[in-house]
């Protein structure tokens, strides 16, 4: 049996990955997560669990921790919605890029055979739409692309590196507050308008998959047949209009979904950017430029990932309902 080390084991992806690997009965699993320790009954007793901040550990301590494992899964870092103090580019680089590059080097020292990174599907759109200059405008996307590139550059000398570009992931972790709670609060306050074009037609959409599917994809990526590569994952492409209606139905709110033209949307985004500026903060996704992405179809065709990683069908719409019903 092989051994998997999951950084971020109590998060949505790490929790699903722990179960997926253990359920195969082909892997031992060790997780490492930030405190606090979850309440009794949340952690899978089949795995070993450690808590702390790996960035505070010495290289020797990390190598010792990794010794005896075969696969490293990075399911940590800071997400795109965090608004740090300026400069955001430096913040996201330090939070998301430097740890991945450094841990990959230490994983090689500890003789692990594979390092798998969970990163963002924005990397796919950066390559698809170079004219939008996403890495030059959005600090989070800059760091995400750098994170993937630097990891793949670490491939070799006994270590295979794989990057999984994830879309929006829906799922629940027992006794944990879902990351969609902020979205739900704003929807209650009617702060999520529906964006329409000059013909009053709803625009924009995104790709979604369940945490269970991500766990299965990680098991697939751990297979020895998978070499160094980036995969763009996904399952259900859902318009912004349909997603809002599904969330609203699950929340049982009567809030009317507002409609807003691109010009009105950009005016709202400028106010948000100004508020951040006054607070000395900077968003990972620059508000005004991000309106361009909000009105596009951020859809994915994941056929290559499905063929190689072999994750299975799941009911994304049901999970969206379950997530918002839990709030």
From TrEMBL:
SUPFAM superfamilies in UniProt: NAD(P)-binding Rossmann-fold domains
Stretches assigned to the NAD-dependent epimerase/dehydratase domain: 4-175
Superkingdom of origin organism: Bacteria
InterPro entries: Epimerase_deHydtase, NAD(P)-bd_dom_sf
Name recorded for this polypeptide: NAD dependent epimerase/dehydratase family protein
